[in-house]
Design brief:
By secondary structure, the protein is α+β, with helices and mostly antiparallel strands. The chain has a single domain, classed as Alpha-D-Glucose-1,6-Bisphosphate, Chain A, domain 4, CATH 3.30.530.20. Helices cover 25% and strands 33% of the residues. It has a seven-stranded antiparallel β-sheet with strand order 1-7-6-5-4-3-2. It starts with 7 loop residues before the first strand and ends in a 10-residue tail after the last helix.
Length: 173
């Protein structure tokens, strides 16, 4: 058995939103992300319900160094947690979003976004090492946080002009 030296990074981001978990959870879906992430696009490959569910499969290609990637919903606990396994030619990512009501106010939700990214080959390893700079991830997640907060407050997505440059290729899923 040949062992490869795959590089791995793990990143987390915490946010607090002024909405209950049920309202936010429904937006963590490849179909509903069109509502609040202006630059989001995907190809929905399989879903029984038409939205996110356990086993839902979709593909993204943001024209970045990672290329096309296929996402599978690997964990689905409504209003509490959604997780994805995301795989392409260069990396695989385990991505999860955990939601928890605030103990003092059920209309406030604490979210933990976690990514575990593993290179699949030497080229992927180079990109994983380059992506390990936490500043870019923090900036991307801050933009996502702002988009979600704006949508929750207004029911509308931020304009493309406002969002352009704020959200790199990666998103929630």
């Amino acid at each position: 058995m040949k062992k490869t030296d795959s590089k791995r990074i793990v990143r987390e981001y915490h946010m607090v939103q002024e909405a209950g978990p049920a309202r936010i959870f429904s937006l963590l879906c490849p179909v509903r992300e069109y509502d609040w992430i202006p630059l989001w696009h995907c190809e929905l490959l399989h879903t029984q319900s038409g939205v996110a569910e356990l086993g839902c499969v979709f593909r993204t290609d943001f024209g970045d160094q990672w290329g096309a990637e296929t996402w599978v919903v690997s964990h689905y606990r409504p209003d509490e947690k959604i997780a994805f396994v995301r795989t392409g030619a260069l990396r695989t990512t385990r991505y999860e979003v955990i939601l928890a009501s605030d103990r003092n106010d059920p209309a406030i939700t604490h979210l933990t976004w976690r990514q575990e990214i593993t290179g699949l080959n030497p080229e992927g390893n180079k990109f994983v090492v380059a992506a390990s700079a936490d500043e870019e991830f923090q900036a991307m997640m801050a933009a996502l946080n702002a988009m979600l907060a704006h949508y929750l407050a207004t029911g509308k997505s931020l304009s493309l002009a406002h969002a352009a440059g704020k959200l790199p290729e990666e998103s929630a899923g």
